[in-house]
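hey m, so remember when u said the tokens were messed up on ur end? i reran from scratch. heres the input so u can diff it against urs
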Amino acid sequence: MRTQKTRNRLLSTTIITGAAILAFAAPAMAQDSPEPQDETQLDEVVVTGSRIPQANLVTTSPVTQVTGQDIDVAGVTRVEDLISQLPQAFAAQNSTVSNGATGTATVSLRNLGSTRTLVLIDGRRMGYGSPADPSADLNQIPEQLVERIEVLTGGASAVYGSDAIAGVVNFIMKKDFEGLQIDAQYGFYQHNNDYDGVGNVRAEVARRATGNPAQFALPDDNVSDGESRSLNISLGVSSPDGRGNVTAYAGYRNNNPISQANRDYSACSIGAPAAATPQTFACAGSGTSFPGMFTDFSNFTYTIGAGRTFVPYDGNVNAYNFGPVNYYQRPDERYTMGAFGRYAVNDKAEVFAQLMFTDYSSIAQIAPSGNFFSTGDINCDSPLLSAQQAGLIGCTPADILAGARRDMYIGRRNVEGGGRQDSLNYESYRGVAGVRGEITPGWNYDVAAQFSRVRLSRVYLNDMSNTRLARALDVVDVGGVPTCRSVVNGTDLNCVPYDIFTPGGVTPAALAYLQIPLVATGETTQQIVTAAITGDTGWSVPTAARPVQVAFGAEYRRDYLGAVTDAAFASGDGAGQGGPTIGLNGDTDVAEVFGEIQIPLADDQPWAYSASIDAAYRRSEYESFGSDTYKVGADYAPIEDIRFRASYSRAVRAPNVIELFAAQGFGLFDADADPCGDVSGTSVQQATLAQCTATGVPAANYGTNALNSPAGQYNMLGGGNPNLNPEESDTLTYGVVWTPSFLPRFNLSVDYFDIQVDGLVSSVGPLNTLDLCYRLNDAAACGRVNRNSNGQLWVGTGFVEDLNINIGGLATAGFDINANYSVDLEDWGAPAYGSLQLSFVATILDSLETDTGLGASNSVYDCAGFFANQCGVPNPDYRHRARATWVTPWDLDLSATWRHFSEVEIAVLGVDGSLNNGGTRIDRYFDAENYLDLAATWQVMDTVTIRAGVNNVLDNDPQLSTSVGTTGNGNTYPQIYDAMGRYFFFGVTANF
């Protein structure tokens, strides 16, 4: 029993395997492995990448594997949190995203984008995760049913079809389970608020709190929050004759929210330091403030004083601290249930099925809505204005008598209405049914159909209506009663005046009128039919003992996506939306044929212990184009201890429905400053007066803060393009696997990867457009910069056009390193102390290049080792995860995990394409980060196991930057760094 337990623990560590990427097919399901002969030999299993069974460590493309035990040791209830710990993987959408959340959980291999990562369940494709995001939603995965996860990085379209540009994540589920298993876990975050990193944030928040305690406050020194609870039940029954099995499951998960107000480093939205305090981040904020900003952006800027008066507005004092209300971790609730079944009808046919259901709900909360300068003037005879206020904005007695209008933009935060809440609910269904079996000895078939559907119900709460704001601020005097003009003329009899010109003037009736829900629904479906044959030809090369094996087949797939938005969403009437959200409807379908072959060249020859080559080809026919993908690979082991492998593949990704058919609409992008505005304290290069006036900036506003968004968010116009071409990529990998006979139970692999994506479906990017216009005088780029009458890009009609096109491409290269070692402590002279398991996985990132395809001197830039601006989330040059597990003789296993991220630098694009131009910014560098995780698993009795652990034991504070924007959250990147403190978890598994 102890030998078998040690064996299982060895396999539970992260190991490196290989997958011969030979052809597209619905790849083989995980098969039962033969019983090990001893602890030194790893099992042969079917790994991701081919229908032809391959042994671990001996095939041509590297695959990283983690197991269900890793989920227990990491204490995760969200599988994306485990995958993102792998150096090859980056989280995209996850629970830490609030502003811009889709409610899904997605993964991006090599940081090439989640749409270029294909996600499978038992080798079969998952459908679109959401009408708002075509990437697969990992919330649909029941974590306690996961047997292992295999991650193949690099192009795999010849095996899996479109989308496998960066690689494949394959969830292998438990099957043939017998009995009843109940698993429960509870966890929470604990953090000591004692930030002492760059920027003196605590001191700045405390200073601001003395003058504005309503918006600035340090949280408690010790906080506990973000509680998580999960309960999973599995039930399996096999038929008496052993020919069939049904495994059913049901699960519940609930996570509580964490607000940024509860962490000192996110208690304010940080900005560039003031000149007088160069080592201290400023507490920045939004001009859409409370009690408000009232301005014409040239002659006056006021806020509300005592009584019904205007006083000068000072952004250093009056800007709204929008960060604390935002969620660091979204709350969520998930129900899952499903069943996996198989039955051998006879010795030639086994029927099988999978049924999966998920109901997932989450709320993304950000700062309150308001009037985001959507109203640009006011009538001088408004009874809401005092004589002092009317006079200060330029209203003369004659103007008041005539009811003349004066320019006055209003930025006023709806603090009375609370934070904006995006309530997202998904119902997901997935079914697979098929038959497989033997045709003749050595030849097998697999025919299957699958259907998946995701339904979205979205309700956006606490937003305000732009239309109603305009009416509620257009007020006249009717018999001494302030009355909306729309009531007088009959346009809108329900209008209630919005009195924001005196403290406490907003009434519940006004809020009830102004606040509106915005509603959207949508659905995605996927239909797939696959037929494949695999076989042993019986023929072999004279120098090889193994026969040539082949696989071939055909597949049809249709993906549909549709979304419907209500009038408020579609018209952009939601004041806090940044623009309209417009529905869409479209589908893509493809018919494909595929084939693969593996040819062993040598076995136990004087010149080679083993050698083989493999190849794959796939032809895909879409409605408007066809594509060919292929792969060739080779492996060579001169001796048993060492093996060399290499592969080359051509992959293709067809544009998805959103990229093709999304309607044009406005959104937001992040920038430290407008190049025509005041760029002091930032890394933005100042444009010339001539350049700025040529693009619509009034000379009076050049170099002023009027052009800068206080929140660092600017408008852009994006949308789909039905004329997009497919992306193509070339992946080259080569490496070595070392399993020394003199060191049993040790293996090491080092693999080089080089991925080049051409014709990238993306956009030029608004930051690149501004750079091309104002630094390189590119006329086409300047034509995409559309400023409002005041020269702004963040108010009203100002925006940068950024539609989908095929740009130059993406490229990444580097090395993956994997090592594992298992040793009985008896070998080290401690026979009574069990065994030790060690695992190590690392990635050295050599390059991560983007090519905008515009041919300028800075059109190509390399984001390896950089973050922010053009580079987005941090891209460390080096990442690793190392784990040591002591398997004691007392049924207690103790694990320690070390996660490391190397230093990164802020990306500031130069005219020559360089990015290391951060100057003296105090946030120019993020220091290297190291995390320590501890866990213990105790088998209390044969049927009961308990586990506990702490992640981020040292309670590391995250790295902070003023340039995070909406790419991250709370002044940092919680997708990468542990931003919420220590995570404690406790779990129990009982088998009956």
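this time it looks ok to me. Residues 361 and 425 are 4 Å apart (CA to CA). if urs says something different then somethings off w ur setup not the seq
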